[in-house]
Structures are given as C-alpha cells and as structure tokens.
Design brief:
This protein is an alpha+beta fold and 569 residues long. It is built from 12 helices and 16 strands. The chain has helices at residues 25-30, 36-51, 65-76, 100-103, 147-150, 171-180, 213-221, 234-249, 356-359, 400-406, 415-426, 512-518; strands at 114-115, 118-119, 130-136, 200-206, 228-229, 273-279, 291-299, 304-306, 380-382, 394-395, 456-459, 473-478, 484-488, 500-504, 536-540, 555-559.
C-alpha cells in the first residue's frame, strides 16, 4: 500500500519536524530575548524526541529508505503529502480507528509545514546546503510500493528521469539522484529558481556488523565516502556526530557576497572584475579559520565568470571549479606536494588556503614578512592611545619598544611574550606549525576568515601611472584575525597583483592575538571575532575628474564596524 489515499499502512516515514533554526545553550543564555524563538524550537525538538515511546515487543518498522527519501523530497520541493500521514494499522488504539495525529499527538507530523494537502518548501534562499544523517541497524528493504510515484514526471511530483534498478536495490539510486539534482532550478514543485545548487548530501551511521558494500554504497551515493560505525557508548556516538558536523562546516564556500567595482568615469558602467571572499571552518573546532579573496572576470555576453584561461570558472554546485586558476594566483609557487581531493596541481580552484590574495601577502611566498614596517616587506598598523582625527596610525612592529607599549593590550605576561605575539601577528611561524624546524619563516597561512565581512572595491581611476583601461582599484576587507586590509588589484603596468598594501588592527582586538596563536579547540568552534563587519566607503572627488587623487583635494573615507568583534567603529 502507498500514497495519500491508502490509510492501511505507511511506507518510509513522516515529517516529525520541519527545518527550524536553533541555538546552542551558550548563545541562548547570552541573549535569551534575541534568541527566544530559537530556544523554543530547540526545547520543542527535545520534547518531541522524548515523547517517542520506547519500543516493546518483537515488532519493528523496516527502514524503507527509498520511500522515506521520496517523502523528504516532496517536503523539500513543497509538493503534495504522499506517505507523510501514517496509516491506522501502524499506530493506533485497540480498535485501530484513529490515526497517529489522534492517538499520539505529541509525536504526530508537523502541521506547521503543511498548507492543505501540500508541504511548504523550506528552500527560499540561494545555496541552501541540505544534509541528512541516517541511523541504520540493517539495510533498507520493503521500500518498493511507491516506485510508480517516484518514477513519475515532474508535473506529477516524481523524480523525473530517475533510473530505479529494481526491487530492494535502488535506495542508492534515490540518494544519488538527490545528491546530483538541483531542487531549486524552478522546475520542482513550488521551489523558485534560486542561485546555486540546492542538493542533498547524506551521511550514514550503521551497526558496525552491517557496514558492508551495501551500506557503504548508500554513503557514497549520498555524496560521502563511507558509513560510520554506530556505538552504544554515548561519548563515542557524540564524537562521531561531531566529526560529521565539522565536515559539514568545513566545506569551503563563499558565504559572503561577491563584489564588483564600478567605473569612476561612468557610475553605471561595471568593471569586469569580480572579487570573491572565501573562508573555511576548522574541522577540529579551532578558532583560527583561513580566509581568502579571489578574483575572476565577467563574460557579460555569456553570463559567465572566467578564470585566467578564459574558461568558465564556476562548477555546477555554484562554487569555483577545482581546476580553475584564479587571477592573482602565482601558479608556480603553489605547493603541489600535499594535494587534497579538492585540489588540482598548478591550480588554486575553490581551495581557501591556496592562491588568491592570501598567497600574495608580502613575505608569504619568499622571505619572512619582516619584523617592522621599515623592512619594506609587510606594512601593518594599529591606532595609538592618543589617536585622533588627522593622526597617523602607529606601526605594528615586532620590537621591544612596541611590545612594551602593547604588553597589557596583548595580555602578555612580559615584554618577551608580547614581542613573540607581535611576531605572530606579523605572520611569523613562531609555533613552527609547518614543522620545518624554523620559527623565522612565514606561517602556513596568513589571512583570516571574512565570516561576516565582504570585499569592498574602490576605483581610484587613472591616477599616477594607471590608465582608464587599467584603473587603480584597491580592495578592502576585514577578517577575524583582527585586520582590516587593503589589497592592490593590478600594477600600474597592467600586471595582476592581489598583494596586501597594508593591514590595520584596532587596539581592542590585540587581546585576541594570544588566543589565535595558541589556537586551541573551543566550543562553539568560532568564539573569537575580529574585524567582522562589512566596510563601507564615501568617495569625495573635489574636481569631478573621475580620478581620486589627494593632490586635488580628493578623499576616500573608509568606515567599518567590528560587529561580533566588539563595540567599536
């Protein structure tokens, strides 16, 4: 039996709860008013799980994965409820005359995600990454009653084009179809056509005696590598779940918006550069996350973003292709000795800590970053205590005088430790993180994550040796390692640059340097924030010549807040 008109039994499962935002206990405690809805959602979820009766007797419900995920597909795409309202014979009173909604209302289906006979799709924004975690004690079976509906066309609510392999052998086909299919292309149910790929990635936690070719095949079809082992030990199970969640969070992606500079000659004209901010969560819950800015170019005629080879740089999942080489990247200096599955030799692609502006920070590729600004390698500033309008920023040097002045702000026990922290802030590998036995070279990566910031391009026009066809474009971006940075787009002669021009760390963020240097796992995993706000600029062109030049009285004012990094602008 199967379908909305069959009440004798159910196939698969039902939607106990739709997608709802939740917060950690720490976040809720810190802001109970702001997080009231999220706190209530979490409590309701726990209460619902706690209300599920403990199984008794010798009966059980088979894991009907194919039909379970078909119902999930109907929910995701806002289509008609199919097997989602359980039949009378599955649960019920002695006379089997009432359904689950009447017999066990505490664990009934979520009517809040239904509108009439249809689900309300949760997909409303671009790049909705959807993940499932499945607990199994056998393999999927007794799952074939809904095959006709699954194979139906889009207009009938089916998975159009799916090629089921036959009875008891096609759960992996459904998993693979959901992992490869963009549910938000505007052709499924009530989901609009949204940017990026809205697909489903599935993890499996399985009885260790049942981890085999079949269950590992489920995981591979769902876009993960292999099944995880179930454990009756809660600590081991939590460790497994934590590993999965960290993998999900560690998927490198662009959460911040792309930025495009406009022409100073014609504000309606867009320059063909696109700057993408990327960051990656640390898989081990450490607070220091890598970030980057990468450059592509617009092919307006074909609506594409191109890499240095002139090829489409965007993959079907909406992220940069693995084999793309972005502008600014020095391909000859890429480390190809320890490539991951997502990296290609000689290319930087979507990898966060590879290529882009992060690779071009002075002192990263060759030579140390320099202990002071006078070394003419890397230029870093902070604002002195007497900072006021018209004042110059102070040099963030790694010397004894600066260490003495900033010891208290750095939370250092003495001047020696303060100087070590300043060396770390300037980019020195003081912990020997690369294991080469040296602490006088650059750290493995020097650019922090722009979690809530975004690149801000400022087009200064044809000033100095720059021209109208190669204007002086600078990119500003904040990051959670504490710096607001300026990057150079191109050299005056037209060569690609991406180099950091300067970095500025507000004094209020100096206290984070010690924690970032130690880089110990935290809970939640990202609790130290730096320049976490998006910058804005006001440009004043005194003589309206479309060139921003101080000699003409022109000004470019930059404003940025610290957001979660602190109460400061």
């Amino acid at each position: 039996c199967a379908g909305p008109n069959d009440t004798k039994c159910s196939n698969g499962g039902y939607m106990l709860s739709g997608f709802k935002p939740m917060v950690t206990d720490a976040e809720g405690a810190s802001d109970p008013t702001g997080y009231a809805t999220e706190i209530a959602n979490k409590a309701a979820f726990h209460n619902t799980l706690g209300a599920i009766p403990v199984p008794s007797g010798n009966l059980s419900h088979s894991y009907q994965g194919k039909e379970l995920f078909f119902e999930f597909f109907r929910y995701l795409t806002g289509q008609g409820i199919y097997n989602g309202h359980l039949g009378y014979n599955d649960y019920g009173d002695t006379n089997k005359s009432t359904n689950l909604s009447a017999d066990f209302p505490a664990i009934s289906w979520d009517t809040g995600i239904e509108s009439g006979a249809k689900y309300i799709t949760p997909i409303s924004e671009s790049c909705s990454k959807i993940f499932t975690i499945n607990f199994m004690f056998q393999v999927s079976n007794q799952e074939d009653d809904s095959d006709a509906a699954i194979k139906a066309g889009k207009s009938s609510g089916g998975m159009a084009g799916i090629n089921l392999k036959g009875k008891n052998n096609s759960f992996d086909t459904v998993l693979d179809w959901l992992n490869r299919t963009d549910l938000g292309d505007g052709s499924y149910g009530t989901v609009s056509d949204v940017h990026g790929e809205q697909n489903v990635t599935s993890y499996f936690i399985v009885d260790p005696t049942k981890i085999n070719q079949t269950t590992n095949g489920y995981a591979r079809a769902g876009g993960t590598t292999a099944a995880y082992a179930w454990s009756d030990d809660p600590d081991e199970l939590i460790t497994t779940l934590g590993s999965i969640f960290h993998q999900i969070l560690s998927t490198s992606t662009t959460f911040t918006a792309a930025s495009i500079p406009v022409s100073v000659l014609n504000r309606a004209q867009v320059v063909d550069n696109v700057f993408l901010a990327l960051f990656e969560a640390d898989a081990n819950a450490k607070p220091r996350w890598p970030g980057n800015v990468k450059k592509l170019k617009i092919d307006a005629a074909n609506g594409l973003l191109l890499d240095t080879s002139g090829k489409n740089a965007v993959a079907i999942d909406g992220r940069i292709r693995h084999d793309a080489l972005t502008y600014w990247t020095d391909a000859a200096s890429l480390d190809d000795n320890n490539l991951t599955d997502e990296e290609v030799a000689g290319k930087d692609g979507r990898s966060v800590a590879r290529g882009g502006a992060g690779q071009k920070i002075p002192g990263y590729i060759s030579g140390p970053p320099g202990l002071s600004n006078s070394a003419n390698i890397r230029t870093l500033y902070y604002e002195p205590s007497s900072f006021s309008s018209g004042s110059s920023p102070a040099n963030l040097n790694a010397d004894s005088s600066t260490a003495s002045a900033l010891q208290a702000k750095l939370n250092a026990v003495d001047v020696t430790e303060a100087e070590t922290l300043l060396r770390f802030a300037r980019g020195y590998d003081v912990n020997d993180e690369n294991g080469d036995g040296s602490t006088t070279d650059a750290r493995p990566w020097l650019l922090g994550d722009p979690l809530h910031s975004r690149p801000l391009p400022i087009n200064y026009g044809a000033r100095g040796s720059y021209t109208a066809t190669n204007p002086d474009i600078r990119i500003l971006m904040g990051s959670n390692d504490g710096f607001m940075r300026m990057f150079r787009n191109t050299e005056p002669g037209g060569a690609e640059s991406g180099a950091e021009v300067w970095g500025f760390m507000p004094q209020v963020l100096l206290g984070n340097v010690k924690r970032l240097k130690e880089n110990q796992p935290t809970s939640p995993p990202h609790i130290y924030y730096g320049v976490d706000g998006a910058p804005s600029a006001y440009i004043y062109d005194a003589n309206n010549d479309a060139v921003i030049n101080s000699a003409s009285g022109d000004k470019a004012w930059l404003y940025f807040g610290l957001r979660r990094g602190g109460r400061a602008y």
